[in-house]
Specification:
Shape: rod-shaped
Distance between the termini: 100 Å
Helix content: 40-55%
Strand content: 15-25%
Number of strands: 13
Structural class: alpha+beta
Length: 409
């Protein structure tokens, strides 16, 4: 007996196992070992699938004797059974004073009368032999059925044990059927050893409580009964890490790694909550772009560009409620007095941004920042004025509220 790797699935099994306990392919008498590279493969193949070594073909040339070809076809041979007659036992003759019939005349004694005692003895022996034969046949049939039933019970127990992952079931088979076929005993023992190793590895993983150890265990034991528990523990470890970091990036990483995880819904809720409070870099760029464009168009006296940054109706614009875009244009022309040659507005970029959730992935931004107005007069003298601006951007990215206060020099 030797332990080999199944040519079909690669699991270690006995070369005498009737079939592989893992994939069910036939093993005993169905595999050969390559004498060149040691690869075990199915005997139905003519060459080794690894090194392509071709096995020699058996010589089928008929044997020749005295230059005459001997017919290789086997002829039926009939074995003649010689029936040995039982020897006659010399029995003491009974003394009889009476003269037997035909004693004076031997011819009167018929042949039948002389043969009767001998034939009777022979018939009795035949009957006894027949009875003995019948008894032997009955005993043989009984033994056959007994051993057949025992064999069926052993086979059922073997198949049940091979399908089980309970070490007690496997050990019970080994204890109860110690005289089972060697191939069965080897397969059960190998199966039991694998289960014990799987359990020992799982115990070590539970002690370490490490994500990497759990991942290694799943890779090494993909069919383990503890696989679901290992996946659950990995999910819990990653979720705990995401909660501790409490960032959108960490939560999105958890969802990416566990698309069907136990905490995906919780992760999405936390992401929405964080997004409603946390200003992302792209949001800061959007705010800077909108207010930078608004101030530039205000300095360039570009009515079309200026009105594109504001909502058609503003809740408040420089103290006027329910202001329109026309009110914004009027303000632009108002600040360009006759002594102004040119004007420029610039944001200092010191934005303070607060975000409010107003719908599904829709937000409103309250913005506060500083800006400088540079005025060049007709005499080419430049004057700088600093303002503190507070404003609101709606969920469409337009200015819906705008106020500014001139800061003292």
């Amino acid at each position: 007996m030797a332990i080999i790797k199944c040519p079909e699935c690669g699991h270690e099994i006995s070369d005498k196992a009737p079939f592989c306990p893992s994939c069910g392919v036939a093993i005993a008498g169905k595999v050969v070992e390559c004498p060149k590279c040691g690869k075990v493969y199915f005997s139905e193949l003519s060459e080794c699938p690894q090194c392509h070594y071709k096995r020699p073909v058996a010589d089928k040339t008929p044997i020749v004797e005295n230059n005459n070809a001997v017919n290789t076809q086997e002829t039926e041979k009939t074995t003649e059974v010689e029936i040995v007659k039982p020897k006659e036992v010399n029995e003491p003759k009974e003394v009889n004073n009476e003269q037997p019939v035909g004693a004076n005349n031997p011819e009167e004694a018929s042949d039948e009368s002389l043969k009767t005692p001998r034939n009777s003895s022979r018939n009795n022996k035949i009957i006894i032999g027949a009875v003995v034969a019948i008894v032997a046949v009955v005993i043989g049939i009984g033994c056959y059925f007994y051993y057949s039933i025992q064999s069926d019970k052993e086979l059922q127990a073997y198949n049940y044990a091979m399908a089980s992952n309970d070490p007690q079931v496997l050990q019970s088979y080994l204890d109860q059927y110690s005289d089972a076929p060697e191939a069965h005993l080897d397969s059960i023992q190998l199966h039991l050893d694998l289960i014990k190793k799987t359990q020992q590895d799982w115990t070590n993983v539970m002690i370490s409580n490490s994500k990497s150890a759990l991942e290694d265990y799943i890779a090494q034991h993909p069919d383990s009964p503890y696989k679901a528990i290992a996946i659950h523990k990995i999910d819990s470890i990653d979720w705990q890490t995401a909660q501790q970091q409490n960032t959108v990036e960490a939560l999105e990483l958890y969802i990416e790694q566990h698309s069907d995880g136990e905490h995906v819904e919780d992760a999405n809720q936390m992401i929405n909550s964080l997004n409603s409070k946390t200003i992302q870099p792209e949001e800061r760029l959007m705010v800077n772009s909108i207010y930078g464009g608004f101030l530039k168009s205000l300095g360039d006296k570009d009515e079309e560009a200026l009105t594109s940054f504001v909502n058609p109706l503003l809740t408040n614009f420089l103290g006027k409620t329910n202001a329109t875009r026309s009110d914004v244009v009027t303000f632009m022309h108002k600040i360009y007095k006759s002594d102004v040659k040119s004007m420029a507005w610039k944001s200092l970029g010191d934005y303070t941004i607060n975000k409010k959730n107003v719908g599904a992935n829709q937000y409103e931004y309250s913005v506060a920042f500083s800006a400088i107005q540079t005025i060049v007069g007709q005499d080419d003298n430049a004057t700088e004025v600093r303002y503190k601006i507070t404003s609101t951007l709606n969920n469409e990215g337009r200015i819906s509220d705008f106020n500014m206060i001139r800061l003292a020099e």
